[in-house]
């Protein structure tokens, strides 16, 4: 792995000539621990968990929204943003086809769980996220990577802080600029279903309800502790390592997304079984650097000079 054209710590991305690490590790684990195949498949509880969080996030603005602005803000930050992040990560699981064996049923569920996010993103996310997995780090294809313009503009403590606060906007807009795709039928269905939801929800919750959902979305994608997973997963905190896991308690409510090396090695294993994967193949995971706190990751990202938007691995092949 090498840096190009600039100072090692701040002025350029890492460039890697070899293939992403998960392909080879997956082959090794499959050869050494064939029983890992028993972990493949769907999570029968995933659909129920996702629908429960969906209904809870919609019930709050319809039945329990406080008029006091301070209580409203507290509700958004503590409850709404947390539920929004859980919904994001439920959609992540569902778009890996881990709720049903039938891909179409997974698509329908993802579209429904998308409702409280307000903007129709689940079916486009499914396409872009698959590219992130199979072309990890490839410039112009993996839209999880920040652009050169982002890295140049958002530097220093306050620059990175501004970027973090608005992180959800960059994740939404970047794919349209870096790697636009032609909408397929599922993305069109996603859009139509979301428009219908918006009309119905407005009748039930009014403008205040939308303010709650949008504010929850914005906080969830910014400085919320769970949002630390966006930075923790692939920003280079140890040279030579491309993907990072987090094994803390927040995995309990985030479908074990913190087991990120494990997830990239085996995206067809549900999050609920990733801890079993780690136990089956300790020689492949226990030596890797892992995070102890997503909140600490956010603080390190904005406060350490060596941590910049350039701290990502890119490849051309």
What is shown here, in short?
This protein has 317 residues and is mainly alpha-helical.
List keywords for this structure.
two-stranded parallel sheet, globular, 317 residues, 14 helices, three-stranded mixed sheet, disordered N terminus, mainly alpha, 3% strand
Describe what you observe in this structure:
- The two termini are 14 Å apart.
- The N terminus is likely disordered.
- The longest helix has 36 residues.
- The chain has 317 residues and is mostly helical.
- Helix content is 56%, strand content 3%.
- α2 packs antiparallel against α3, α2 crosses α9 and α7 packs across α14.
- The radius of gyration is 20 Å and the shape is globular.
- The strands form 2 sheets. Strands 1-2-5 form a 3-stranded mixed beta sheet, with no helix packed on it.
Major sheet attributes:
3 strands, mixed
Q: Give the helix level as a range of percent.
A: 55-70%
Mean pLDDT: 95
Q: How would the global form be characterised?
A: globular
List how many beta strands DSSP finds: 5
Computed Rg: 20 Å
Class from helix and strand fractions:
mainly alpha
Task: State the end-to-end CA separation.
Answer: 14 Å
Order of helices and strands: EEHHHHHHHHHHEHHHEHE
| Strand order within the widest beta sheet | 1-2-5
